[in-house]
Specification:
Helix 3 (about 120-155) runs antiparallel to helix 4. The protein is α+β, with helices and mostly antiparallel strands. The two termini are about 70 Å apart. It is built from six helices and 23 strands. The longest helix has about 35 residues, at about 120-155. The chain folds into four domains: about 60-70 and about 325-400, Beta Barrel (conserved putative lor/sdh protein from methanococcus maripaludis s2 fold); about 70-80 and about 225-320, Efflux pump adaptor protein, beta barrel domain (Elongation Factor Tu (Ef-tu), domain 3), CATH 2.40.30; about 85-115 and about 195-225, RNA polymerase II/Efflux pump adaptor protein, barrel-sandwich hybrid domain (OB fold (Dihydrolipoamide Acetyltransferase, E2P)); about 115-190, Helix hairpin bin (Helix Hairpins). A hairpin with a 2-residue loop joins strand 18 (about 335) and strand 19.
Length: about 425
């Protein structure tokens, strides 16, 4: 350090532009211009690069194809037996015995229940005693008439005595008839103690047990028997479906009951035997706008049991007609907005385009497209929310999507190995 230079605690200062220009021999104005050019060049390079381009979204597509479309009507309803017979107690008594197996077939006249007979046997005995007494009285009155008639003819007794005897005979006959009626009533009540099957069919569970008092004040339900060889399908047909069905019937020149009916069970399977319409109500219900209808199906006996049972829910389907070369698309590909139907289509340039179409009836999980689509085009069925008008997309079929998912799942396992 030069002893003449004063001490500076902050240390030496950085050179100013003037000093720097002295050191390197470049004017300060030129340095400033150089800094400005550098800044402008950097900014213009950043502007030319722009934001990073995102890849086109992946959408699942399906190819539009033509097919034969059966136009069908389906009705939801319930199965029931043509005859459900309730077996009820007709007399007041205790149940002594149950003589059938629940859930089995019974024949007409098979014993079902046995009620306590002792009170009715006593009533029958009393009725027979009254009948014997009445017959004895009638016999006496008839003998009196036989004795008094010759005497009255000889005028040995007043005519009134004979008339009284004849009247007693008529009273005796009436007493005998009343006693006979009481005997028949007692026999009838006694017969009701043996409850037998009134029809043949499948009997359900017993509603009473041994020792239960039945028939007290009302006819107690004991069991129910249903005839299951033929089953009825009850449903409600809307006015629109009724008109469609009638028009189709008029085109064919036949009757509605001639249309074959297919029964679809609760598990989605079709019943093997076709049915037919047997009843359509005379008027529509103004509250619901439907008509009551009934179809008849022959039941199926397999494995020792009837397949169709009362109370089961099912659907009835009828085919009105089969149209050729119709376009079907999955329902999830169709968007409904204020009565209009829209579909996203992928053009040959892999761009998404929204198109207005005319949709017809639904067939299963598909929708009939009457106008707006052609065979061979691709419609978006999954990923519609990613599509933008005119924006590029990556169309993939369901098989390609599944393959890509399998490859993506296998990639981590390969990396670990």
């Amino acid at each position: 350090m030069n002893p003449e230079t004063p001490f500076n605690p902050a240390g030496p200062r950085p050179p100013t532009p003037d000093r720097l220009s002295r050191y390197i021999g470049v004017p300060s104005v030129l340095l400033a211009l150089l800094a400005m050019v550098t800044a402008i060049t950097t900014t213009s390079c950043k502007q030319r690069q722009g934001p990073t381009q995102l890849p086109a979204p992946v959408v699942q597509v399906a190819e539009v194809r033509t097919t034969n479309v059966p136009f069908t009507l389906e009705f939801i309803g319930q199965l029931d037996s043509p005859q459900n017979v309730e077996v009820r107690a007709r007399v007041e008594a205790f149940v002594d015995d149950v003589q059938f197996t629940e859930g089995t077939e019974v024949k007409v006249g098979d014993p079902l229940f046995l009620l306590d007979q002792k009170p009715f046997l006593e009533k029958l005995a009393a009725a027979n005693g009254s009948l014997a007494e009445a017959k004895a009285g009638l016999n006496k009155y008839e003998k009196d008439v036989a004795r008094l008639r010759p005497l009255a003819e000889k005028r040995a007794i007043p005519q009134q005595d004979l008339d009284n005897a004849l009247a007693s005979v008529e009273v005796g006959k009436a007493n005998v008839q009343s006693a006979e009626a009481r005997v028949e009533s007692a026999k009838l009540d006694l017969g009701y103690c043996e409850v037998k099957a009134p029809v043949s069919g499948l009997i359900g569970a017993k509603e009473v047990s041994i020792g239960t008092l039945v028939g007290k004040g009302q006819s107690t339900l004991l069991a129910t028997i249903s005839q299951l060889d033929t089953m009825w399908f009850h449903c409600a047909v809307s006015e629109v479906d009724y008109l469609r069905m009638e028009r189709r019937v008029q085109e064919r020149g036949n009757r509605a009951r001639d249309l074959p009916v297919t029964l679809i069970l609760a598990d989605g399977s079709e019943f093997s035997r076709p049915g037919r319409w047997v009843f359509l109500d005379r008027a529509a219900d103004p509250a619901t706008g439907t008509l009551r209808a009934r179809a008849e199906f022959p039941n199926l006996w397999e494995g020792g049991n009837w397949l169709l049972r009362p109370g089961m829910f099912a659907r009835a389907r009828i085919i009105l007609k089969i149209d050729r070369d119709f376009i079907l698309v999955p329902q999830r590909a169709v968007q409904e907005l204020q009565g209009r139907h829209l579909i996203w289509v992928v053009n040959p340039d892999s761009q998404a385009m929204q198109r207005l179409v005319k949709a017809g009836p639904r067939v299963g999980s598909d929708w009939v497209i009457e106008e707006g689509l052609k065979a061979g085009e691709q419609v978006i069925v999954e990923g519609v929310q990613k599509a933008r008008e005119g924006a590029p997309v990556q169309p993939m079929t369901a098989e390609q999507v599944a393959r890509a998912a399998a490859q993506a799942a296998a990639a981590p396992r390969s990396a670990k190995e």
